[in-house]
Amino acid sequence: ITSTDWLKTNGLKAKKLNLYQVLAPNAFSPVEEFVPILQKTVSSTLHEKAMMQFEWHDGTVKNIHVDLPILYKYQKLLAKMVRIYEKRINWLSVASRRIWGSVCEKRVVILVDISVPNSTCIIHIQHSLRLLLEEQMLNKDCFNIIAFGSHIVPWQLELVPSQPESLQKAWRWVLRLQCSGSRNFMSALRRAVEVDFKEKDKHKSQGIYLLTTGIPDQETHTISAYVAEACRGFDLQLHVCLFSVMEDADSCGIIPARYATPTETVIAFKEIVQAANGRFHWFGEAGIFESDDITVIVSEMEKAKNYSQKCAFLVESLKPRSGDQPANPFTAEAGATVVVTKEKRRPQKLSSPKPTALSLARMV
To answer: Residue limits of the VWFA domain (predicted)?
Structure first.
């Protein structure tokens, strides 16, 4: 499952932990009405010890009743969700997911760049494919692998069922791959779309995953236009896994069909991915540089941090107004108020009246 889909059930809004969802029951719009008996317009006022003015998500200002116990509980829930998000980021950053991200679809075609510039990192590419086959492909319905340099080299003529035997055969084929030519990505993409996914309209959950180290031979706008047309209206996405190698691409003495700086390459693939409604994943030997799956989780964590800060602001702003409040109201025990209330209601013992001179004379 993609992080975007994961957040549909685990995001702050899905968990009803959006700050404005929490404050809504105690939020009131300022009221301004004409009072006939006074013959003037009167605005609502704030209770100085219990309410604050707070900017709402739509830019309006609301009068907020600050309920300290609710806000304290809310902040603890936010901290818990942040820990869950950190756990998912760690999960996305290890093993095959560090290279491929989360491979979610049930029908998958893997496009592998074996152009000559990759001669120095073919072992890394093979290892990446091995991890993918071992960890993420067994639960798929079917798959295929297409290697490409100047020409395409498909493993099978069409998609095959994902079974232990077929995965083992695919791995033995991967071990025989040799680098040649440039990056004719368009031919490999066409092969996947028009052969492996020729019945894309009859199936759901279909994905193409590209593992590459550089810019394709074809112009970015040409690829984007093709993939946008191929994916439009179908449950088919193209995802890019860009591997940045330490060695210079020209170290083999091969002049690529197109040259692009790392930044230009990233921009180009982001444009292609956007056209295909896919995800972009950029990594190297040092780790992950950028990942759409991780970025959306980090964004949710930042949102939680922002909500927590606004929550703390509300609490801190209320303190100067309530001098009789404890210094830290969140540390008070929940039962303290109940105990105090019971003690106040207990009947007090009446003291005897003081004797007067007359009463003392009668006692003699």
So the answer is: 107-233
* Gap between the Cα atoms of 30 and 11, Å rounded: 31
State how far the Cα of 230 lies from the Cα of 236, in Å rounded to an integer.
8
Coil/strand/helix, residue 11: coil
- Closest by CA to 134, choosing from 99, 176, 159, is 99
253: phi > 0 → left, psi -120 to 50 → alpha, else beta; which?
Answer: left
What pLDDT was estimated at residue 316? 79
Let me know: does 134 contact 168? Beta carbons within 8 Å: no
Query: What integer pLDDT is reported at residue 18 of this predicted model?
Result: 84
Domains of the chain: 3-88+300-321 (no CATH), 102-278 (3.40.50.410)
The tokens 């301004």 sit on which residue? 32
Task: List the structure tokens of 47.
Answer: 């209770």
Strands 236-244 and 206-212: parallel
User: 105: which residues sit within 8 A by CB, 6+ positions away?
Assistant: 140, 205, 206, 207, 237
Question: What residue type is assigned to position 191 of the chain?
Answer: R
Q: What is the pLDDT of residue 151?
A: 96
**CA triplet 349, 353, 354: central angle to 5 degrees?**
135
Angle (CA) 30-33-34 rounded to 5° is 160
Please state, in angstroms and rounded to a whole number, the distance separating the CA atoms of residues 144 and 105: 13
- CB environment 188-206: b (16+ within 10 A), e (fewer): bbebbbeebbeebeebeeb
| Spatial contact of 44 and 32, defined as CB atoms under 8 Å apart | yes
Which residues, given as ranges, of the chain have pLDDT below 50? Answer: 31, 34-35, 42, 47-48, 249-251, 324-351, 364
What's the token pair of residue 292?
A: 């759409």
Rounded Cα–Cα distance for residues 141 and 238 (Å): 18
pLDDT at 344: 41
- Nearest 5°: phi and psi at 64? -105, 125
* pLDDT at 96 (0 to 100): 95
The pLDDT value recorded for residue 21 is: 79
Both tokens of residue 239?
């995802």
